[in-house]
Amino acid sequence: MRLLLVGPPGAGKGTQAAMICTKLGIPHISTGAMFREAMAKGTKQGQKAKEYIEAGQLVPDDVTVEIVKERLMESDCSQGFLLDGFPRTVAQAQVLDGILEELGIKLDKVISIELPEEKILERLTGRRVCTKCGATYHTQYNPPLQEGKCNECQSDLIQRSDDTEATVKRRLVVYREETAPVITFYDKKELVCHIDGDKPISQVLNSVGQCIGRDL
Ligand code: AP5
Ligand code: MG
Ligand code: ZN
Q1: Each residue's pLDDT tens digit, 79-91
Q2: Which of 17, 54, 56, 157 could pair covalently with 171 via S-S, beta carbons 3.0-4.6 A apart?
Q3: Nearest bound ligand to CA 132?
Q4: Is the distance from the beta carbon of residue 142 to the nearest atom of ligand 1 less than 6 Å?
């Protein structure tokens, strides 16, 4: 199955993606996570991405498109994939169309997780992520079993460097201006399921299952 997951910052894309991909046995491709990995390794690409990410801006399309293209060519994507956080500009969506055409494949669904703006700040300021495996928690809505430690690998949990109030506000403006039009782009192709993200995590997962016709 070939899926896209779109939605504003903090909507729950990463949380849902982890569960969907485990169940379907497909790779979870998050451009944000790929950039954070490059940042942690201190590569040139990571250093460049860091400037944009911590300012709440999008990383330039040419950089982003290149890493996605390379990733989709890897063999584990041949049976399907879930793209999380890409495309987030109409230009990226057009490039993706070209890549898919070249590979002779089509998207099955675009899952749009929707969340009102006033809920976003509390989602992101309460988020904690594992330094080692990237698992995501929330101090109130999805707390780890032991405070500050990952359930999966017991490593330390931290806050993301772009989860400050000022950066989140900037990310929201960028979302409204640059990413919301991507949903319209796919609406025209009748590929989108609009899902209410303002529900408990398990309920959102059920809605995703209904969208793709699979029991999750
Ligand atoms: P990225 O990492 O993609 O961030 P984002 O889109 O801003 O989304 P988030 O990861 O913040 O939120 P999410 O929807 O995954 O929510 P989560 O599941 O964690 O991108 C980061 C940056 O990288 C961008 O700003 C940009 O600079 C750059 N970038 C990435 N892709 C790019 C691209 N294609 N082009 C250009 N630049 C790009 O959940 C949030 C919190 O809520 C968690 O604490 C979670 O536990 C909790 N939660 C989840 N679901 C629920 C629920 N149903 N109820 C209650 N709490 C919940
Ligand atoms: Mg995410
Ligand atoms: Zn972990």
Answers
A1: 999 999 999 999 9
A2: 56
A3: 3
A4: yes
